Amino acid sequence: xxxxxxxxxxxxxxxxxxxxxxxxxxxxxxxxxxxxxxxxxxxxxxxxxxxxxxxxxxxxxxxxxxxxxxxxxxxxxxxxxxxxxxxxxxxxxxxxxxxxxxxxxxxxxxxxxxxxxxxxxxxxxxxxxxxxxxxxxxxxxxxxxxxxxxxxxxxxxxxxxxxxxxxxxxxxxxxxxxxxxxxxxxxxxxxxxxxxxxxxxxxxxxxxxxxxxxxxxxxxxxxxxxxxxxxxxxxxxxxxxxxxxxxxxxxxxxxxxxxxxxxxxxxxxxxxxxxxxxxxxxxxxxxxxxxxxxxxxxx
Length: 299
Description:
This protein is of the alpha/beta class. The chain contains 13 helices and 8 strands. Helix 1 crosses helix 2, helix 6 packs parallel to helix 7 and helix 9 runs antiparallel to helix 10. It starts with 13 loop residues before the first strand and ends in a 5-residue tail after the last helix. The mean pLDDT is 97.
């Protein structure tokens, strides 16, 4: 049975964009993925995003993506929303991934803006609509122009929100003004996709987070969210400020690199990276340890 959702929080409130664990020789580590997924859910996540950028989706095969979804659904699918990343810059490929994710048991789809080929807004509208038409699963848009090169304009978001299966947006645009307007105009469930802006986005109508730092501080993110929803903005702000060294430290370099390093330091399943990502240097690892310690993370 799938976890409970509401129209306001279709994927829960606190989700972590999960890394894809690999074995020492670089193969997919399904046992490790199940262990990590269980750990994250037990820490307080309502959901997990698989096969996103943090999951090294550019360097995993379609077969590996399918296997990962099936393994995580088996491990935690009755306790958390399992959302599969299916976004590519080839609409036909995204449709194939969407149908495979539905067959694998995913509860929802994450669709990032097509990257590199820089389509116009009408191309974005048709791309996302085609993904939403391809399955019966709810869809979360993912707006991250810093990676994709193209923002989803507010007008396009409002058009897409008319589709019955496009229910949410992961916002990594970094523009609180546009976010405020888009939330009000679209009615979509809005999720912060930038950990540094988790608290500010709540103030303009976001319902929760899709986090990277959730790998190491999910309980604190849950506490921040609960405090804010209870009206204790001062407490939420104090937690936000306490976590600033973690937010900064986990993004001093590419986020997957630091996240896997942090998990490996904590003896949790993560394993190595696939090129072109590379391991932290000794100096960078020391800095990460210092940043995490400053934010109260025990290693």
